Amino acid sequence: MAKDVIQQDGEDVVVREDTAKASRGVNWALLSIGAFILVAVVLLIIFFAGAASDGKIESPAQAANANTR
Predict the structure, then answer these.
(1) What is the mean pLDDT of each run of 10 residues along the chain (69 residues)?
(2) For residues 69 and 51, what is the distance between their CA atoms, to the nearest angstrom?
């Protein structure tokens, strides 16, 4: 059976290949979720900074009505 080395709690551990692949998969999933959350936070900050730059924050309905006047 093939063996592979992963790091667990700062130590190198020899495990089966399928266990190592699963461990790497979990690491990539957590990294992807973290990146998604980071992008969402940056977009929220940009949105609120843009909305507050004119001094008032309006709902989308209020903004749409303001353009018809």
Answers:
(1) 87 92 95 98 89 71 71
(2) 20
pLDDT at 43 (0 to 100): 95
> Residue written as tokens 């909305």?
51
Query: 14 near 20, Cβ under 8 Å?
Result: no
What's the residue count for the chain? 69
Read off the tokens for 44: 């929220």
Q: Is 4 exposed, middle or buried (0-12, 13-18, 19+ CB in 10 A)?
A: middle
Residue given tokens 């900050």 in the structure block: 45
**pLDDT for 54:** 67
Would you state the structure tokens that stand for residue 61, as one six-digit string?
Answer: 């309905």
